[in-house]
């Protein structure tokens, strides 16, 4: 029988018009016929070699009849209605463009993650001729840097104030230093921005810290290694006038060098006035009332409750958690929560009228000691997480990070402790969603530590840089980072978040 006719014989049918030449009821031999004979039905266990061909032919037979009512399952009108409904959604999605695929050779961090951090620009400060004295060596490298982000000027990029200094001995006469403002400038096509030097102001000594008033981001303060406190106001130029910043106040204190600064509201009733807290190395914090005038309001003398034998308190960091409380970090790792509503006047012993008159503004604040670090506290930060939870984040020299929940009250024990890998962490900053910790290290590297997994990635500079950075600052909008100093060079990073 012709093999091409097998596909028409899936089932054995009775003969048409004549009897079959085969029968299963009798063993008699039937007369042979010349035509009209069906083959025997296929056995229950078919040969394996024929089964794939039978399945393929069955599928071909099914597809070959698309117009039969059995397979007609669509309606033209419903299909048109569906396309009209989907088309606007598709056009909106296509208007956003395709998702960019980044080259792994680019200076980017984990394209698959939400955060993409890349090196944007390097800023190098110009050296000034020093004044005569022991510090006249112009080749001495810059080892300390200070920077702060001011108000946003263009394309989510704020103004930047920076300053550098060298390491000085106690006997050294500090040469005149400057604070320099850098302005973000768009390129001619309106794309990326580059920071260019705008203006500078001199100061009496090397700047140790800079900090911006969060309630007026055109106002910022600076403190020097000689105990000088400066407050400046940035003036936006009108028409052809050159932008500059004006010195609102400067004063020299006798409490030691200014190690850190923090801004807060002076009180809830006076929203026009701000409070500036300056932390000095000798365990002193000065509260300045900044309004139409700048007044030294109160002087706090801090002590560690658990310290015995009159051990001196050496401050390293300060952070305002509210208009009535602040946290101070110490060189021995202590964390002190201080309240300005619970003040004990100093020098008020019986019979010491002269001593009391000389210390009218001197107080000892109410102090609670939080869990201490093992080494010097190098960073303090407050993060408002999801607008419902406030976290106090502290870090010491070895990279040990404490997370305290301060939403309602500050508990003495941290809710989370992280031990980041060495080398030593001089400064850190945590992302607002508390997923990443950024920390600058030697040779110009930026480390990105993922809190959930402990994974560490790095962003490398264009060329290896010398120096140990002591600075990292993130903008209020979380889009820019600055680290330094590497012998007078700062690195600006752009931070892109994909939601």
TrEMBL record:
InterPro entries: Dynein_IC (IPR050687), WD40/YVTN_repeat-like_dom_sf (IPR015943), WD40_repeat_dom_sf (IPR036322)
Phylogenetic placement of the source organism: Eukaryota, Metazoa, Ecdysozoa, Arthropoda, Hexapoda
One GO cellular component term: cytoplasmic dynein complex
GO molecular function annotation: dynein heavy chain binding; dynein light chain binding
Region (Disordered): 17-52
Transmembrane helix is among the record's keywords: no
Keyword Cytoplasm part of the UniProt annotation: yes
Protein name: AGAP003804-PA-like protein
Source superkingdom: Eukaryota
Species per Swiss-Prot/TrEMBL record: Anopheles sinensis (Mosquito)
Key words of the record: Cytoplasm, Repeat, WD repeat
GO biological process, one term: intraciliary transport
